[in-house]
Structures are given as structure tokens and as C-alpha cells.
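## retry 2 of 3
previous attempt timed out at serialization; input unchanged, resubmitting
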Amino acid sequence: MKRALVIFSDRTELRKLWLLKRGYRHCFAIIEGRAGWAVFNPLSHYTEIETYPSLDEDEIVQFYQGLDFTVLRTQVREVPKKRAPLFPYTCVEAVKRTLGIHARAIVTPWQLYQYLENYHKIEKNSLTYPVF
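## retry succeeded, writing output
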């Protein structure tokens, strides 16, 4: 499985997102590829894509933690062989699809953070995924 980093941020220029939990108002993913790491940052007005061909995982984690972002190490799951639930395009929905997550109950960055934290706790004790 490909390694991935999910970055959670408090920074947003959209006023309505200030209603979300502080520190978890936006999220994006960084995915390991053959030629390095690719940043997939879905914003409301466009999707930013960058590559980090010469940085290792720890350097990327330290960089974003230095910006006061929360970083979770995870992996891209095997994508279920069914259509993903239909939801509006948000940063959370984009990151869920990037990671192969089809959990309907996850709609905010904080819920995604909790899901991923739970996933890693369960993963250590079994081979099943949490389902919401």
C-alpha cells in the first residue's frame, strides 16, 4: 500500500468554515508515488497539486508541523469496488476518495481525523476497517 500523510489546518479564508473545530477547518493529502510525494490540496476555488521529488517523509512531516498543522501518517486503502457515496465536493470528500474511504458519516476535517486515529488503533489489533 502507498503511504500517505493527511494534513489538518486551521487556516481558511472562507468565513463559514470558522464554525468548524479549531485546528481542523481544512485538510489535504500528500501521497507517496514512484517519483516522490504528491500534494493534493482541494481548495474551494481550485485544486493545488505539487510534488516533492527529493524530500523524505520525515522532512515533509517536520515542515508541516513547523507551520502548526496536524499531520497524520496513514496509507491509501484498497478502494471498494463500488461507487463512492455522492456528496458535495469538499476537502474532506476529496481526501476520503484519495485514500479510498467511503464512510458516509465523515463530513468534517475533525471527523476525518478521528476516523483515521480510530483506524490505526483498530489496525494494530485486527485486520478490519472501522465502518461508520
